[in-house]
Amino acid sequence: MRFGINTFLFTSPFTTESISLFPQFKKWGFDTVEIALEDASHIDPVIVKKALDDNGLVCGSICAAMGGGRDFRGTEEAQKGAMDYLKGIVDISPVLGHPTLIGPLYSEVGRSGLTPPDEYKRQWEMVVKHLRTLAAHAGSLGVKLAIEPLNRFETDFINTCDQALQMIHDVNEAALFVHLDTFHMNIEEKSSAKAIIKAGDKLGHFHASGSDRGTPGNGQINWTTIFDALQQINYKGDVVIESFTPAIEIIARAACIWRDLEPSRESIAVDGVKFLKKIAGR
User: How far apart are CA 222 and CA 192, in angstroms?
Assistant: First the structure.
């Protein structure tokens, strides 16, 4: 099990120049970096990979930014926008060491409403078609995808592990996995531990956030049961801290972060990774 940090906590957009963050991430005790990449053109993957290597870090995952105009269940233009964006990231992933592409790859974040059953079914079939194409392409390059259920305030489409697993079943491509997040599970799942166990060997990625989206360990989440479940399924992937502050305005608006959740961004990273390593028994 490796421990990582999502770059949205510190910068947006992530560009080639953002590699200046890497020495600090290593100093704080992280193994991996989750690059929140808003467009593949924002980085030179060769330079980023060298900087990771020089600092003894790995890009374990790339966090998709599914903003406006990127939606597999939206207009034709939005569907094309999502495919072009996500394929662009998949295509540079081998240069970065084959990180997993993660997040709500199926839809624009913030799109929510009471969708009639017939319309939901139509949207589901569109997403299946597009994810099958994307996953087949990713698999041909040795890249994994992991779709993330979001809470009801951020999407009306996939909120639970069960729904994500159904999508994976319907897509039927080996490169597609589920990505679970403690913040979203705390809202939507009856039991986060049971959701982890249900995901089993299809759990491809894991986000660690406090119950208020702050520092892991500084909230109401039962982390002992979380890590017991991860150990039960023999999870060997990354556990990544994903938290936000109002300082990064674009993600603050998307995630509804209207106040400082913790004393500083550094405290979220430093205290969070120390806690996670302790609870995991390292």
Answer: 9
pLDDT of residue 282: 62
Residue 3 phi/psi, 5-degree rounding, is -120, 130
- Given a contact cutoff of 8 angstroms between Cβ atoms, the answer to whether 172 and 203 are in contact is no
The DSSP code for 99 is P
CA angle (209, 213, 218) in 5-degree steps: 70
pLDDT at 256 over 80: no
pTM of the model: 0.95
DSSP for 210-259, please give it. -TTSS-TTSSS--HHHHHHHHHHTT--SEEEE----TTSHHHHHHHT--S
Please, what are the domains in the chain? 2-279 (3.20.20.150)
Q: pLDDT (tens digit, 9 = 90+) per residue, 112-158?
A: 999 999 999 999 999 999 999 999 999 999 999 999 999 999 999 99
Give DSSP secondary structure letters for 50-73: HHHHHTT-EEEEEEE---TT--TT
Decide if 207 contacts 181 (C-beta within 8 A): yes
Q: How far apart are CA 2 and CA 200, in angstroms?
A: 18
Catalytic positions, please? Answer: 148, 242
Query: Which regions of 108-224 does DSSP assign to beta strands (E)?
Result: 145-147, 176-181, 203-208
